[in-house]
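Two folds, back to back.
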Amino acid sequence: MATCQDKLGSFVQWLQVNGIQLRGCKIRPCDLGGFGLYSETDNNGGILLVAPLRLAITPMTVLQDPSLGPEYGKLFEEGDVDDRFLMILFLLVERAREDSFWSLYLDMLPSTFGTPLWFTDDEFSELKGTALYHATKLQLKNLKALFTERVKQLAETFLSYVGMPCREIVFEDFLWANSIFWTRALNIPCSQSFVFPSQPPVQLESGCLQENHFNGSASKIATEDTSPARSNIVSEQSSTVWVEGLVPGIDFCNHDPKGKALWEVDDENGSISEVPFSMYLIAGPNVAFAAEEEIRISYGNKGNEELLYLYGFVIENNPDDFIMVHYPKEALQRFDCAELKLQLLEEQKFQLRWLLHTSLLHKRVSSESSLPLEACKKDWSQMSGYSWSGHRKVPYYMDHLIFPEDLMAALRTISMQEDDVHGVISLLTELSESGYRRQPSEEDIKAAIWEVCGNAGALQLLVDLLTTKIMELEEGSGTEANDTALLEGLSTTEFSPKEQQDGLSEHECNIFERKRPMTKNRYSAIVYRRGQKHLACLFLKEAQDALHLSLSEE
């Protein structure tokens, strides 16, 4: 059996044979597992690695596969699969093939992951009360249904076409391919001349990928809006085509919020890297790497919820963390005037989910600095120009209210009492029946609701939502302090009566009695969960302070 070092050596040779240039960097095992890119010697910047995009696994690669490309093409032309599905299916099939060109690359990729989809039941239980708990359960259910209904049969059929009729595909194979795509795919800006050239494709020969270009069969992938999240589109204003793909070599860069390197895409002339149509890794401005220093890039400003869900890791004290506040639409049905409220929400184009980012806490309602009333009056509410506007003064604390206006405006709408709803309708009717003679706009509706309701009802509702969120987060796992103790290894199985009197219930004490190993996944779940509790408590304090000021003002 080949050792890790043997596999790495064969993979590096495969990279070099196929045009990957390691310029002063190398791939080696990381101290905490997996592989990463490291500087070979002291490096004062410049280009560190160059990868021809012809070696990337993209939707075009799938359609140009010499053995199964036509089958993938037929599947895509049927119209009920998108480019992501094709790539995940391709990864699944290629990993199972004995003669795959991509074997040396795929063998180097992780076989398990730190995302919640791969948690054990015990690890997954640490996520109870969080948004990820419900999202992962739903995702796992959908993936299992997709595998049973489509993927298993397609993969086994495709394998039979390449002489492997007895290879059985199980759900874990599909889960692996799905995880590889979501943890490693990049959104690559390509020129139209690369995606839609006139030259026919060149076949793979002797385990080496030759100069291959892509014909018109890729156009549907590159131009259709196949996903609301990250679609592959051709900009009408430029010649850029965004294509998702895996780039061997580049995808061994791990994440650092302050990553010292970044990747770029070179043009058809190779003006920067001297390799046409390539992706290159370059040190950031005024950056130097010491010998054996890991070369990291930033995956973007992402909170722990996103990092754990997509990539399988978290960052303690993440400055980009956030919590999601959600008001269930069905809850509105329990109140008077539900249909009118729903209509007002729809006309204001509100989604009933809001992200509260850590950065919002930089501007506190309880800040000692305060502005005079006149300085606080600004155009945020669009409250001018109506016969009924201006009766409600802009409160002095408004300039320190940290919550986004779309959240506040939606909560004002939801929290209205029956008399408030009729008052708003009356004000809006004035616009259409008086000299204005027009249908109310989004801003008209927001202004009318503000004039009738103010902030008190919205802030009380926000306090209730955040209180409920904290209760859900703490159920079964205790407070933020409990999570901190677990992470610091301070848990104990014995509590004195004094400690119990200080607020730890018998149930909370049982949290500490769970002498389970601190696996990486469990650690990630607790760090994420603790961050959610921390932010929820801080935002609750802000909402309570704002509510107090609002009530005293009114």
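---
second:
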Amino acid sequence: MTRGRDDGGPKKRLVASLLILVTFVCFLYAYSRNQGSSALEYGSKSLRKLGSSYRGGDEDTDVGGKQYESSSIFGGGENDAMLKSIPVCDDHHSELIPCLDRHFIYQTRLKLDLSLMEHYERHCPPPERRYNCLIPPPAGYKVPIKWPTSRDEVWKANIPHTHLATEKSDQNWMVVRGDKISFPGGGTHFHYGADKYIAQIANMLNFPNNNLNNGGRIRTVLDVGCGVASFGAYLLSSDIIAMSLAPNDVHQNQIQFALERGIPAYLGVLGTKRLPYPSRSFELAHCSRCRIDWLQRNGILLLELDRLLRPGGYFAYSSPEAYAQDDEDRRIWRKMSALVERMCWKIAAKRNQTVIWVKPLTNDCYMKRDSGTLPPLCRSDDDPDAVWGTPMEACITPYSDQTHQARGSGLLPWPARLTSPPPRLADFGYTNDMFERETEVWKQRVDNYWDIMGAKIEPDTLRNVMDMKANMGSFAAALKDKNVWVMNVVPEDGPPNTLKIVFDRGLIGTTHSWCESFSTYPRTYDLLHAWTVFTDIEGKGCSPEDLLIEIDRILRPTGFVIIRDKLTVIEFVKNHLTALHWEAVGTADSDQEDEDNVVVFIIQKKIWRTSQSLKELD
């Protein structure tokens, strides 16, 4: 009997242990459900805000099966609740560009023509495949070096990629020096400095004082295959702004370096789609050793440059074909010369390794070509300003009757063109008074924004700025005297496509849909301005939560977001501040030009780390 009682004790203890184990497993299951399946899928990590002693923040928020569901209407229902946390992406996603993600292309086995560079064009994941998580900064990330010092050096920890320094060591692209990467100003063609090369181009064109801006007549430039954008960097001192363009190719971090330096740049490629800029946007296009086959597909890529150049615009081309004497280079040169002659371009200058062609001022040459000459003129129903996802056409875009008669763009030199109504304003039915009124309104609004931010900013706090809904570019115009540049974004669906007014003012920008991710690296802009952008995407049925995560991806730590939208949008954003690691800076009421119920809300992004990156620092 005693033995039987002894045997019962362990059994009871075993049963009790099993009950405890089952209870613990159930607790873990409930806890993991509470964390959300997205957190598990995308690698949620504990966080530590700098200057604080805790990790993770509030990690007990129920975000459901998907991270959370989008609402069709701001305010009301479950979305009024404060969201306490959002999952954090794995560290290897620290440079994720969702619509230029090679892994997505490989995983979905998209059938793309590599010879046409389709794999470098935008391919956005559907909503169910999006990474609905916050992009972590790399280990050791620091607040970027301020402009203008940043032109010449950046923190290595912010872009921990040094292969270009080795690969391009003989061309002075970049040099690793301790915890920094420096940029001597060299390039594939201009090893001894972009400044000397730029002066040489100006000298070839007989511009006064070897200044490429030619008295303000050269203002907007497209640099194709820009490398780390030193050409664009050294144009800025001449009051010239370049859109430095390169794909996310084998030199995949070149645009990231450009933006980290504070130089205007954009991820894009001359492939099968038109570049996201309207016709007649640039005074000069430039390519030095850009490895582009300009003869392919009946010269379609040169014809895309032709579409983008203004009347009398230049194409500066530095490449072996322009000077080498071997059979292949001479063959390419002969064919290229014949092509541009049929396009009515003429050689403006040719010296050493560089040739500069100039585009005609009028349609006269086009009209004198023999019937059947290739490339043909574009069809009369072709809209040269339709660019969002629009295939390139191997045809010449003729000028409008107004431009033909004016014998040029009719634009004033910079900076007068910034505040003067451009001739193409009439294309939208806008009057000069409307233009001048908008310019003045945004000047007042920008002054108000700076008053709200107050002590939070110094003259060098901001450099890379994005206006997410630019209209005519008046927000950017109001920033002229601040040491910043602005990427002016115009909605892809309009109407109207006012981006050509932006370029005519001597500013730069791009077309985009905010239902998709923007073509830039994480942590590349210091300030984003969102004027009714959330209301606009709500009307398209797109996710406001996705837009918040995208804004966070683009924004640098310590950067700012200015939201000018209806009150329900502001309340929606406020409910996400904790989860996004943002903090409110200030608010302001609308002005008389706003629609009813519009509020200004300014926020700042905090610096945070993942626990993994902190371990790497230790």
